[in-house]
C-alpha cells in the first residue's frame, strides 16, 4: 500500500511559503512530489486547492517582501471593480528590489504612496490607473471609486500636488472633470466620456424624472429639451423582465412627447455613429448648439491620459446649455 502523503492541516487550504512548509515538517523532497504544486518561487499550494483570485493575491503576498503593497488594476479588483488586466498581479515597494515573475510584477518607487496593510489608497490607485489605463477605463474606474466612497477628490488633488513626479499624477488631475459617480456601469461611463469630449450639452445622469405620471430613471436626461438617452446592454435583450420594462418605458416617453435615443451595446462599439445619433436626437428636441467634435481628442480617449493631454492640455468640461432654450414640441418622437 502506498504511503499516504503528510498534509499539515494549516497548509491544506491555501498558498504558503516554503518556510511555513518546513515549520510544519515538509521537506523539499516532499514538496517536489505530486501532493504539492509550486505557484511562485518559494510559494506552494496543495494540489486539491481550487485557486481563486483571492488565493492568488495571498500567493503574491507570500512571494513579495513584507513592505510591498497591491496597486493598479489588482488593487482596483480587490476593492470590488473587475476592470483592467488580471495578470500580472500589480504590487509596489519603496526600494530597489530585484524579484520578478510572470505572475507578479513589483513596481519600484522612491516614496511609498499612502497605503494600508493590503494595498495603496484609492487616491494612489487612481493615479496609477491614470498612468496605465485608457481615458475611457480611467473614467470608469474613477466613477466607481467615487460612487463607492473609496476616492476623495480633495485627497486626490492634494496627493497629485504633493507628488507631481508620479507618472499618473498630471493625468489624474486632467481626468477629474470627466468623472461622475452617478454612472452605474463601465459602459455608461464610456458613453458619457464620448458625449462630453464631443462637446454635447451636459445631461443629468440617472436622475428620477416624472414621465406621464410615472417616475423613470433615464441614464441621461436633458431636462431643458425633454430628451433622454438610454444604454441597453446585452441583458436588456436576454432578460425578459428587463425587455418588457424597456417597452413600457419607451411607451411612456412617446406618450409624454419625450424625444429619446436607445444606445445598444452594438452602437456603443461605433462611437462616432453613437454620438451622431445622440446629437440628431437632441436637434430633434430643439438643440441648436454646435455639431459634435468627433475627431482629434475624440479618437484619443482609447489611449492613456498622457497621450490625450498632449493633444488637449486643458481638462475637458461639459458644454453647459443656454438656460433660455425653449424648443418646439418634437414633430415625431423617436422610436
Structure, explained:
The chain is α+β, with helices and mostly antiparallel strands and 335 residues long. The protein folds into 3 domains: 9-50, no CATH class; 64-178, no CATH class; 186-311. 39% of the residues lie in helices and 14% in strands. It has 15 helices and 12 strands. Strands 7-10-11-12 form a 4-stranded mixed sheet, sandwiched between helices. Strands 1-3-2 form a 3-stranded antiparallel sheet. It has a 3-stranded mixed sheet with strand order 4-5-6. A hairpin with a 4-residue loop joins strand 10 and strand 11. Helix 5 (122-132) crosses helix 7 (153-162). It is elongated. It starts with 15 loop residues before the first strand and ends in a 24-residue tail after the last helix.
Task: For this entry, give a set of tags.
335 residues; disordered C terminus; single chain; alpha+beta; 12 strands; three-stranded antiparallel β-sheet; 3 domains; elongated; four-stranded mixed β-sheet
Amino acid at each position: 500500500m502506498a504511503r499516504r502523503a503528510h498534509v499539515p492541516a494549516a497548509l491544506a487550504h491555501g498558498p504558503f511559503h516554503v518556510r511555513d512548509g518546513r515549520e510544519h515538517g515538509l521537506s523539499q523532497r516532499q514538496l517536489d512530489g505530486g501532493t504539492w504544486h509550486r505557484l511562485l518561487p518559494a510559494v506552494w499550494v496543495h494540489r486539491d486547492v481550487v485557486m481563486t483570485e483571492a488565493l492568488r493575491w495571498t500567493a503574491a503576498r507570500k512571494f513579495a517582501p513584507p513592505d510591498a503593497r497591491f496597486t493598479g488594476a489588482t488593487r482596483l479588483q480587490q476593492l470590488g471593480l473587475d476592470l483592467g488586466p488580471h495578470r500580472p498581479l500589480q504590487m509596489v515597494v519603496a526600494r530597489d528590489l530585484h524579484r520578478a515573475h510572470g505572475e507578479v510584477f513589483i513596481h519600484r518607487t522612491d516614496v511609498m504612496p499612502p497605503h494600508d496593510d493590503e494595498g495603496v489608497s484609492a487616491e494612489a490607485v487612481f493615479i496609477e490607473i491614470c498612468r496605465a489605463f485608457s481615458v475611457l477605463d480611467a473614467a470608469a474606474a474613477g466613477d466607481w471609486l467615487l460612487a463607492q466612497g473609496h476616492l476623495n477628490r480633495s485627497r486626490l488633488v492634494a496627493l497629485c500636488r504633493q507628488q507631481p513626479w508620479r507618472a499618473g499624477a498630471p493625468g489624474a488631475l486632467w481626468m477629474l472633470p470627466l468623472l461622475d459617480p452617478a454612472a452605474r456601469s463601465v459602459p455608461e461611463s464610456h458613453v458619457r466620456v464620448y458625449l462630453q469630449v464631443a462637446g454635447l450639452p451636459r445631461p443629468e445622469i440617472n436622475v428620477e424624472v416624472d414621465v406621464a405620471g410615472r417616475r423613470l430613471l433615464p441614464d441621461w436626461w436633458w431636462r431643458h429639451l425633454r430628451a433622454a438617452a438610454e444604454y441597453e446592454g446585452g441583458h436588456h435583450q436576454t432578460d425578459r423582465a428587463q425587455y418588457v420594462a424597456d417597452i413600457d418605458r419607451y411607451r411612456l416617453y412617446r406618450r409624454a412627447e419625450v424625444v429619446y435615443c436607445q444606445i445598444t451595446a452594438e452602437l456603443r462599439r461605433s462611437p462616432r455613429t453613437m454620438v451622431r445619433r445622440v446629437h440628431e436626437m437632441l436637434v430633434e428636441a430643439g438643440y441648436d448648439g454646435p455639431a459634435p467634435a468627433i475627431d482629434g481628442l475624440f479618437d484619443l480617449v482609447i489611449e492613456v491620459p498622457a497621450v490625450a493631454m498632449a493633444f488637449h492640455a486643458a481638462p475637458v468640461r461639459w458644454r453647459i446649455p443656454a438656460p433660455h432654450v425653449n424648443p418646439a414640441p418634437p414633430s415625431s418622437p423617436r422610436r
